[in-house]
Amino acid sequence: MSPFLLTRTLPEDATEAALRADVLRGLTRTPKTLPPKWFYDAHGSELFEKITELPEYYPTRAEREILIHRAVDIAAATGSRTLVELGSGSSDKTRHLLDAMPSLHTYVPVDVSDSALRQAGEALIAERPGLDVHALIADFTGGLALPDTPGPRLVAFLGGTIGNLPPAERAVFLAGVRALLSPGDALLLGTDLVKDESVLVAAYDDMAGVTAEFNKNVLSVINRELGADFDADAFTHVALWDARQEWIEMRLRSVRAQAVKVPALDLAVDFAAGEELRTEISAKFRRDGIGGELASAGLELAHWWTDRGGRFALSLSVV
Ligand code: AVJ
């Protein structure tokens, strides 16, 4: 059996401290905001898996289509011996890539979820005897230190999750990724693309209401972790397209005036009737725009692959 290593670079209590800081900052500013990373407790992760199967939510299927068709091209263009995957989650789509990389020596999945890393890691070493798996429990938006593994390295950031970062944070993130790469290494980036507003809004406001439930899950996380008394029924799910910023926003709209207590922060938060709390941005991209952002970070866009519908792109960049 090949080795499975798990390294924690996040202190056990870092998540709790980060949640407190984010909730305090986000709920005391105007307009109120919460960062999307707090959707993903065990229930939220399950809801996201359900979202990926909804008829309206095309990004996961579109990205999988590209991976299936282009995995061999990606492997040939990179010749990587180490694959680092940021926000690996279940590593499900990554299988297509791994299967096309026979010379791969080490897989480094990076995620904040300990359980997802263990599950995915154990399944993988069973399927790919000989592959080293060195999982990292880490927050990829902070400075990341990678294990010493054979190059060249391919860093993959799939799913379109880069769209959750506003432009200034994207620049910091991409510069951080650039700093991890040496000549010969590459970045594989998944980006959802600008398209018809009705298609975009439907993807974030599905008929079955799964995305609404996912959105409200952040309130349950705060209730459980910080003893808050959010009433999920007192908020409605909002998804809208900001045409100027070219991003989808998810919000929770307070249906009435209400006060919410957050005992762990010694905080009471007032919501006016109709007041909206922003819970996520999901930016959509164009080739020139993301190419420019990559260039600003010292990365050169070398390949651009889309699904047949032109809805989603995988780009490969080199230093
Ligand atoms: C996992 C961050 C890519 O922004 O589309 C899905 C999360 N939010 N439905 C996205 C999400 C609402 C998703 N990402």
Automatic annotation (TrEMBL):
The keyword Methyltransferase applies. It catalyses: L-histidine + 3 S-adenosyl-L-methionine = hercynine + 3 S-adenosyl-L-homocysteine + 3 H(+). SUPFAM superfamilies: S-adenosyl-L-methionine-dependent methyltransferases. Residues 20-316 form the Histidine-specific methyltransferase SAM-dependent domain. It is an enzyme of class 2 (transferase). Its EC number is 2.1.1.44. The keyword Coiled coil does not apply. Gene3D superfamilies: Vaccinia Virus protein VP39. It comes from the Bacteria. Keywords: Methyltransferase, S-adenosyl-L-methionine, Transferase. S-adenosyl-L-methionine binds at G87, K93, D111, D139, F140. Pathway: Amino-acid biosynthesis; ergothioneine biosynthesis. InterPro entries: EgtD (IPR035094), EgtD_Actinobacteria (IPR032888), EgtD_Methyltrsf_superfamily (IPR051128), MeTrfase_dom (IPR019257), MeTrfase_EgtD-like (IPR017804), SAM-dependent_MTases_sf (IPR029063). It holds the Pfam family Methyltransf_33. L-histidine binds at Y57, N164, Y204, E280, I281, S282. Catalyzes the SAM-dependent triple methylation of the alpha-amino group of histidine to form hercynine, a step in the biosynthesis pathway of ergothioneine. Monomer. NCBIfam families: egtD_ergothio. Belongs to the methyltransferase superfamily. EgtD family. This is Histidine N-alpha-methyltransferase. It comes from Streptomyces graminofaciens.
